[in-house]
Amino acid sequence: MGRVAYGAALIVLTAATACGSGGGSKPDAGSPTPDGSVASASAPVRATASWPTYHGANDRSGFAAGFPAPRTLGDAWTARLDGAVYGQPIVVAGTAYVGTENDTVYALDPATGRQVWKRNLGTPVPRSELPCGNIDPLGITGTPAYDAATRTVFVAMETTGAHHTLVGLNATDGRVRFTRGLDVAAGRDRTAEQQRGALAVAGGRVYVPFGGLDGDCGNYVGYVAASRTDGAGAVASYAVPTRRMGGIWAPSGPAVDASGDVYVAVGNGASTGGAYDGSDSVLRLSPDLTRRVSYFAPKSWGQENSEDQDLGSTGPLLLPGGRVLIAGKTGDVYLLDARDLGGIGGQRASLPGCVSFGGMARNGSSVFLPCENGLQRVDVTGGGELRRVWTAPANVKGSPVVGGGAVWTLDSEAGVLHALSQSDGRSLGSRRVGSVTRFASPTLAGSLVLVPTTHGVTAVSVR
After folding, report:
1. How many domains does the chain contain in total?
2. Quick one: pLDDT band at residue 2, thresholds 50, 70, 90?
3. How many CA atoms within 13 Å lie on the side-chain side of 270?
């Protein structure tokens, strides 16, 4: 199926959505709360579901079972926080947790947006103190993760002096349980490193990926750090064996399988030919990060490195049946065998036509990819082939999540949340949510869609 035509149907659906909420497309003004958030006067909504990590689970599927179908979208609330929110809000036990670029963590009531607690952890780094980059100031960027065993919320932050630190917070009251320094890449320039990918918790460890700043300046190398969730012991790490670059920066962060092995995507490295240097790849790492179990790289890895056309722009998505999907900057989508990623040129199948940035989502074997020419649905067939089903308009290309028979994604340039039919990609409704960043991805919680914005969080109700 080709590109979906919206036309008059979109106009009718959008108008119906606005009328159903009792107002226009912009969030309600409402009444300010003591913390500066603004709650609308709409009817109470259900917000009790759990979403403890990026896209809800360590396979990064982004699927919310039991989420309502989008018949009417309304304005629930807007929480104005002290900095931009780049990561997804996570939701655990009736509380949403959000980190800002001002190095502040907020706990919010997801039903109302009211503040439960907040904790400022340090002073972020101004852009003027960095050799390159595009976030100003630079504080907490990666999506937090929650550990149920210790009831701890983990965030990674950058503070003045370009220090990168893991912080474990008591989920109930925000008390700092411990901090761990994450600048473990020996001989590298930490001012050129950036923590952008989501954190992951598995097997008593919290994993934190690192790449470089926008512009690939300075002497940095991509790596993954891991700390025990109780803060004890040494910080383990795996560094990409390239001379420079090889960032692990995709917003979705590491994926972790049932055995505890860790999957990451690596960006362009220093080598453009000769001996392979571990970059432009998907890596499967042992839980303790001491061993690369297997890897995949395209046959053209050297040329891709020379042109900054690598796999590092999305993170691996784990699929049923022991398969992995990855896409990157060349436009090629690769299906891999998780048991053996295949080495150089060892993909099981590939499909052209999707230059991808951000995080993918899936429902079963139907995968939704944030492609530069528009969000795409690609199915993995029983025979192990990739089949494109539909493509959304080019402006609708944000990192998606799936629930209620809809794919939820953002037009970051217009600041609009879209609900697309999972089956055929047609519009089911849209809502203006305000200014969002390029890689923003919504969270599905009960009957709410929580959207990270450059000013805080906006909640859209679904009925």
Report:
1. 1
2. very low
3. 13
